[in-house]
Protein: Tryptophan--tRNA ligase
Amino acid sequence: KPRVFSGIQPSGGLTLGNYLGAIKRFVEMQDQGIETIYCMVDMHAITVWQDPDALKRQTRELAAGYLAAGLDPKKSILFNQSQVSAHAELGWVFNCVARMGWMNRMTQWKDKTSGKDAEKASLGLFAYPSLMAADILLYHATHVPVGEDQKQHVELTRDIATKFNHDYKVDFFPITEPVIEGAATRVMSLRDGTKKMSKSDPSDASRINLTDDADTISKKIRKAKTDAEPLPDSFDALADRPEAKNLVNIYAALAGMTKDAVLAEYAGQGFGAFKPKLADLAVESLSPISTEMARLMQAPDEIDAILGQGADRADAIARPIMERTYDIVGMVRSR
Ligand code: ATP
Ligand code: MG
Structure:
């Protein structure tokens, strides 16, 4: 029976990339009647420094974003990771299954330490994919909807499951499938078309936040890096224009159109004409979500109650799987 798990870090505000690459698909899967478990991975967030008060606010804001986008706490399990301690417990076991060499090859680790002194990165940032494997396998999840940037981590999750099953001669953890089918699986930075849009990018102008107001969205799109060429009539012709490609991709995802259909409409026009249309479309698509998020943020106690109930339901699935894991590994459990 399929079971879906996915997580988002409360490491900042939600971006258009998170929405188009992940959350929109989360809602579709929930509404297909599949068992869906969605997590705010606060323990992943602290792999880089988080101000404690900001982390609490961001966790509630992320929950508000999930709810505003259409996740229903009756249909899906919504919770924050640290309230289910088995994530940390299985993460430790997997730290002992995964190999240093596997972690060294992770492109997220390389991206997040590039230009910095990797010796000064936290040990948790290095072990991030191992905790992510625990998040997924703790529920024996069969499918993980993610953006393209997380594909390698899901593959590593499969490697960890395979090695665990092999080392302990069991057929216990499933081999999980990544589901990379978002409306846009790789939204790029508005400042640099070769870098993905991220909520933790130091430049706020690089991303559209789900909480940005209409003026801010318009301004960011107007100022987005582009080139001076007009738009061509096919997406293939944009191959070496990463910024132009990104804006067309965003337009298509928001409008629910193919990229070629967007270009059929705008071929021959420059960005002076295209950007205001894209800004209108983005405002129109995101404002119902941001309005609802703002409303939900007025009631943090209700959000906390949803996360608490979700954590109880998550724990009820996770605990027996964790106990079975301890038994397989050879831990004495006598209380
Ligand atoms: P951080 O910068 O802190 O890593 P993030 O924006 O990358 O934050 P994550 O919490 O790491 O967000 O990822 C949450 C989900 O959003 C994942 O499924 C990820 O693949 C997806 N995602 C993140 N950025 C993008 C993007 N630019 N385009 C499409 N999907 C994305
Ligand atoms: Mg990320």
Summary: Residues 300-329 form the longest helix (30 residues). The longest strand covers residues 3-8. Residues 276 and 333 are 63 Å apart (CA to CA).
